[in-house]
């Protein structure tokens, strides 16, 4: 059973995992590949990031704002006292090593932390350094990718077997009870993939099978969307030359596909050190050459996208705010992101797309937008689009006692 190509773009088909707004990406990889340093840079906080394995024991949890020029533009137009961007939730998970699925290096605890997130940033190291130790004493990103994938598949194999046994045991307690054929066919297919070291997310699944996987094995690690982050030296990142990148691309293509984002902790840290010095920052970037810039914003956007999250805006004199919702959410569900009463008493949504607002609005006035027929009234079946600007009408009456 061969894997099919995976894509970072949502398809609208049945999806693995939870469908909620508070989803989280976890940063996963071997020890000393740059996970905690990257986490610090993304979230602007100081988690421990020392040069020895298992520095991070308990997972660090934080969030980082999602960069968006649309949001920045709305804030500039309205200049309200309160602003609130969208956020990507992140977890920095301790480094895994070979044998983690059998408990090596506190592996079972760390793998359970991966089960708790909804998507994975797989960070892999592609630079040599005498100052930064490597758990296997030599740098080989493709070997490291094999190690992590193998450990995740083994962990899932044990988890799936335990869930199957528990369901079958419960079924035996009821006379003449039988588990449906889809139970066996789905789990058999999952176990066959995992036995061949193939992540579940890369399989060719029907919508009923996806629903059954979400029901039976909701914490399956290899169903989670995955983005590969390749940590290069500053020299390789700036020159856009690395002997490892073509090999990593070949490995990813042969293992289900996915988005690869080359970056450099060394470069990003050097750039961050100029955060309060605009002239110094500009001079540093000038020495790096044309087109070289931070890729942290792209990481955040891609992580947000693979979780199939979007947001709509509320904008006015008092506040400009992004409200995170799952892709495909209907208008009442979007209203519920603001307050449960908005969803319970939903009447209608007054909607204008960001593009129409920017093109047609005369300052803050909606007159030209309404005249162009771009200010719409939508009902309960409206599927909210990313970047919609919405005002909700609702009515909640207090029941008489």
Describe this structure in words.
GO terms for molecular function: ATP binding; ATP hydrolysis activity; GTP binding. Keywords: ATP-binding, Hydrolase, Nucleotide-binding. This is Obg-like ATPase homolog. Residues 23-283 form the OBG-type G domain. InterPro entries: ATPase_YchF/OLA1 (IPR004396), Beta-grasp_dom_sf (IPR012675), G_OBG (IPR031167), GTP-bd (IPR006073), P-loop_NTPase (IPR027417), TGS (IPR004095), TGS-like (IPR012676), TGS-like_dom_sf (IPR023192). With 401 residues, the chain is of the alpha/beta class. The protein has two domains: 24-306, Rossmann fold; 328-394, Beta-grasp domain (Ubiquitin-like (UB roll), Roll), CATH 3.10.20. Helix 4 packs antiparallel against helix 5 and helix 5 (181-195) packs across helix 6. It is flat and about 65 Å long. It has helices at residues 35-43, 69-78, 107-115, 141-172, 181-195, 207-216, 234-239, 244-254, 265-272, 278-288, 296-306, 331-338, 340-344, 354-360, 367-371, and strands at residues 24-28, 60-65, 82-84, 87-92, 119-125, 226-231, 259-263, 309-315, 319-326, 346-353, 376-378, 388-394. Strand 8 and strand 9 (319-326) form a beta hairpin. Mean pLDDT is 89; it is low at 1-12 and 47-56. 39% of the residues lie in helices and 18% in strands. The strands form three sheets. It has a six-stranded mixed sheet, with helices on both faces. It has a three-stranded mixed sheet with strand order 3-9-8, sandwiched between helices.
